[in-house]
Amino acid sequence: MKGKAMVNPSAKRAIPGLALLLAGLAAMPAQASVTGMWRVTGTISGKAFALDCKFLPNGPALGGECTKAAGSGHGAGKTYVLSTGAVSGGTISWGYKAHYMLMSFTVSYAGQLKGNEIQGRVKAAGRQGQFTAVRE
């Protein structure tokens, strides 16, 4: 067969499957970028709070730290290293360990990213509230 390229019959069957795989990957939502500094404000059980958070995504995992903002009352300037965190599409969650007097607890955030803003719910020590985070 001079001048004709030989194509493996199994390769002919693989081409449609590859096309479907590539089409599926193209349709997947892009991972939202949350890298950088965010000002997080909200209330939990009627008490206002403000944090400055630095998010450092590593694939679907989220690392970083949150510092209690100056002027936000008891513990201002205290930094909390994230102990949990995840980003999936436009959904983001993170948490850290905190202490108040003799009590230790986890503060957990979960929200939706829309542009340069995250809105969601916060939970700590059996209490709940809402927060908004704005990219700085």
Provide the domain count. Answer: 1
Largest sheet composition: 9 strands, antiparallel
Order of neighbouring strands in the sheet with most strands: 4-3-2-1-9-8-7-6-5
Q: What separation lies between the terminal Cα atoms?
A: 66 Å
Count of beta strands:
9
Mean pLDDT, all residues: 83
The parts where pLDDT drops under 50 for at least 5 residues are 17-30
- The amount of helix comes to 10-25%
What is the CATH C level class, in words?
A: Mainly Beta
The CATH architecture can be named as Beta Barrel
Structural class: mainly beta
Full CATH superfamily name? Quinohemoprotein amine dehydrogenase alpha subunit, domain 2
Helix and strand run: HEEEEEEEEE
Instruction: Give the DSSP E fraction (strand runs of 2 or more residues).
Output: over 45%
Shape: globular
SSE layout and pairing:
Layout: H1 9-27, E1 36-44, E2 47-58, E3 61-68, E4 79-81, E5 84-88, E6 91-100, E7 103-114, E8 117-124, E9 127-135
Antiparallel strand pairs: 1-2, 1-9, 2-3, 3-4, 5-6, 6-7, 7-8, 8-9
Task: Please provide a written account of the structure.
- With 136 residues, the chain is mainly beta.
- It has one domain (36-135): Quinohemoprotein amine dehydrogenase alpha subunit, domain 2 (Lipocalin, Beta Barrel), CATH 2.40.128.120.
- It is 14% helix and 56% strand.
- It contains one helix and nine strands; from the N terminus they run αβββββββββ.
- Strand 8 (117-124) and strand 9 form a beta hairpin.
- The protein is globular.
- It starts with 8 loop residues before the first helix and ends with a strand.
- Mean pLDDT is 83; it is low at 17-30.
